[in-house]
Amino acid sequence: MGLTGFLTAGVAFAVYLYVLNTGTVEQARSEAFAVLVFAELLRSFGSRSETKPLWRIRFLSNLNLAAVVVVSFGLQVWSHHNAMLSRFLKTSFVPLADDLWLLAVGTIPLLVLEMVKLVRNKISNGVNTP
Fold first, then answer.
1. The pTM is what?
2. What is the DSSP string of 7-71?
């Protein structure tokens, strides 16, 4: 749990600092919030199993999760382009290309956690074999 929090917070903070150096505080907040949301949504797929890597679990094995994630992604991106939703969530405009970049960066925690699963499986399989 600590590693998960560290990775997610680290990615969000890195995006915040990067955008703060190149843009406004509002833009940095919006993009840090977006990458945080993306990272958490993606991580929900990896949390379906403590031992099986993501690619060994059928994507649509949990349709409710898939639907919630797709709708949440849509709302997050829409909040950057809809004035009413933007005011409600206090987000600013984020170009679609930046949303894609943030989505890519948001995969980092998931990828690291999936690699941890692989290493754990490799170690446990190596220990059990003579």
1. 0.84
2. HHHHHHHHHHHHHHHHS-HHHHHHHHHHHHHHHHHHHHHHTT-SSS-GGGS-GGGSHHHHHHHHH
Q: 90-123 b/e with 16+ CB inside 10 Å = b?
A: ebbebeeebbebbbebbbbbbebbbeebeeeeee
Distance from C-alpha of 68 to C-alpha of 62, rounded to nearest angstrom? 10
Rounded Cα–Cα distance for residues 102 and 38 (Å): 8
Phi first, then psi: give them for residue 64, nearest 5 degrees. Answer: -65, -45
Looking at residue 11, its pLDDT comes to: 96
CA atoms of 105 and 103, how far apart (whole Å): 5
Separation CA 103–CA 84 (nearest Å): 23
- Give the pLDDT score at 90: 84
Count CB-CB contacts under 10 A for residue 35. 29
Q: Of 17, 25, 21, 15, give the one whose Cα is nearest residue 109.
A: 15
